[in-house]
Amino acid sequence: MNVDQLKEQVIAYSKTIGIDKIGFTTADPFTELKNRLIRQQELGFQSGFEEPVIEKRVTPSLLLQEPRSIISIALAYPSKMKVRVEGRKGERRGFFSRASWGLDYHHILRDRLKKLEEFILAKVPEARLKSMVDTGELSDRAVAQRAGIGWSGKNCGVITPEFGSYVYLGEMITSIPFSPDTPMEDQCGSCTACLDACPTGALVQGGQINAQSCIAFLTQTKGVIPEEFRDKIGNRVYGCDSCQTSCPVNKGKDFHFHEEMEADPEIAKPLLRPMLKMSNREFKNKFGHVSGSWRGKKPIQRNAIISLAHFKDETSIPDLIDILENETSPVLKETAAWALGKIGGDTALAALEKVKAVEADINVKSEIEKSLLKLRN
């Protein structure tokens, strides 16, 4: 069998296992990406979650012996919930970004890539293959763009004509010399909708992001979120979709091809107050299967506290006081002290004064003092 025939068979098979788009590119180094990554590093714009060795991110031959091509796959995910729930006074809700709806996408893409590997190895037993999703060394976006899946948008996502940027990406380096597909030309043009919509200005220019001020990144950190960003988080407990929902190409794009990607509204848009009292086991049982749980319970709880402050939810004051008085995590205590200052009222003021007298942590004490200053003025 020649390689062109095999390529057609791989494309046909991919459609039968729930791969919505597939593309092929060479295994040449990603030289243009290398320059961009070096610049990102120099500017301090990296998140710290990515592969630290730039050469591995741009050189497929460091990851697989004598690679000849890379297969890129895309799966479309929903942008709207089939069943919606609304928060109301006393029952405020947070929001997980769309990429955390349903089953963790890493599992979904690995399943599709494993099936694709098995299909190829049945045809070419001697083939060498290496698949990766998101946390792998290569840049999913750079591979997908070069493989013709879509163009690299100003929102730092790959935008496909069919599904917009609501796609999960994965890739497979292979020793098979598949013929490359044509990369897609940029179609963002002069549009700046995503740059204008970014709450923190993290999209510093088209296709470049300062991860350190990106809300999607900030909600995944473990420390205290800098005060300048807290008000901008709103009720997001994980991730941010502003650069996607503002994109004109994404307008009207909503695909429900994969049952395991469907949102459970009580998980994707959870009640905030119950999250503050969850045990680790309760958190794992409820949220453990979604991608937004990967950093554990505490960052989500911190974000829930910020969300309650955003709503100025007075019913949460007893919960926040409990955190301030009894929590062991300085991050949660500091965030609760800020939230009480934001919500305000006599009960909050009295609690802050009481805890200030006994609080030993210097950062928590400083946040309490700032909130007291705000409430007394």
Q: What order do the strands of the largest sheet run in, or round the barrel if closed?
A: 1-2-7-4
Order of helices and strands: HEHHEEHEHEEEHEEHHEHHHHHHHHH
* Content of β-strand: 5-15%
End-to-end separation in angstroms reads 80 Å
**SS element count, helices:** 17
Q: Determine Rg (CA atoms, Å).
A: 23 Å
Low-confidence stretches: none
Task: Report a brief summary of the structure.
The protein is of the alpha+beta class.
Q: What can you see in these coordinates?
A:
- With 377 residues, this protein is α+β, with helices and mostly antiparallel strands.
- Among the domains are: 161 residues, no CATH class; 66 residues, Alpha Horseshoe (Leucine-rich Repeat Variant), CATH 1.25.10.
- Helices cover 42% and strands 11% of the residues.
- The protein is built from 17 helices and ten strands.
- The strands form four sheets. Strands 1-2-7-4 form a four-stranded antiparallel sheet, sandwiched between helices. The protein has a two-stranded parallel ribbon with strand order 3-10. A two-stranded antiparallel sheet has the order 5-6.
- Helix 14 runs antiparallel to helix 15 and helix 14 packs parallel to helix 16.
- The longest helix has 19 residues.
- It is elongated and about 80 Å long.
- The termini are far apart.
- The mean pLDDT is 94.
What are the defining features of this structure?
alpha+beta, two-stranded parallel sheet, Leucine-rich Repeat Variant, 4-stranded antiparallel beta sheet, 377 residues
